[in-house]
Each structure stands twice: as structure tokens, then as C-alpha cells.
Design a protein that fits this description.
3 strands; 119 residues; three-stranded antiparallel β-sheet; alpha+beta; 50% helix
Amino acid sequence: MKEKMKSKNGFTLMEGVITVVLLGLLATIAIPSYQNVMTQTRIKDATTTLQLLYTAQKIYFNEHGVYVEGANVDELNTNLNLGIIPNKVAYNCDPKVCYATGTGVSLSIDITAPTPVVN
């Protein structure tokens, strides 16, 4: 009598468990790294934008004798003829300092200083 071999379809429970564990380990490594990269990108973007605000404020001051006080990005874009696109970062200026605040970002720049220094 010949025995027929049954074909094996699908995965065993152990293979499924191992796959889930490996995916979990990869996620625990990848997600924090991704979040760190995104925070560093926001900081670099905010630094560049603050330097742009510094330059635009200096030009505006030379033309009008005062600095622009903007409570939000829309007012700054309108008054300084800029095209700032906030990337989860809020920008505002008072008479002496412009600020960038958001997730992982808290920077400022003194617009009355002779050279731009982002803090």
C-alpha cells in the first residue's frame, strides 16, 4: 500500500510567531531613529527660517525704521513678503526677537543683533 504524502500549505504557528517577534524588534529600532531624524530636520528647517526672518526684518527695518511684529506666520509672510511654510513649527516675532517653537524645537534669534545667531 502506497502512502500519499500530504502537501504542506501555509505556515506553522512557530514561523508566524518568529515573524511577528522579528518585526517587533525592527520596529523598536526603526521608530525612535525616524523620530530623531524628523526632530533634527525640524530644527535645521527652523534655524534656516529664523535666519531668513532675521534678514527680512533687517531689510524691512532699513526701509521703514521699525521691525515687524507678527503674531503668526501669515502676518510675517504678508508684512515681510515671505513664503514661510510651517512644518509643525510656529514662528512669531516681537520687536527684538523672533521665535520658532514646536515638537522638539525651541529656538530664537535676536533681530537687533549685528549678526544672526540662533539660540
